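Onboarding guide, step 5: your first structure request.
Type a short instruction followed by the sequence, for example:

Predict the 3D structure of this protein.
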Amino acid sequence: MTTQIPHTANRLERILAYMVAGVVGLSILCFLALIIGTSLGAGDNDGFSSGLWPFVITVPNFGLPLGFLLIIALLVTSAIRRSREAKEQ
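The system replies with structure tokens like these:
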């Protein structure tokens, strides 16, 4: 009778998971801020070109593709870990 030890995620997988959550979460918040700002009239008379708005506009453009790449990296590291565990048993 063999007992299986429950797996805990290693450090790299946890870091990647938190990075995905942070980058995608920040991108979604910036996207929502842009929608709300537009509906409140912040874009009138070129209002999006000053203050914090250029950063808010740019974050989803880079954050969402980066989040996608991080998810792929997380899937690859998880698959490698699982294949190594399967070979050990």
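Each response can be followed by summary notes, for example: The chain has a mean pLDDT of 90.
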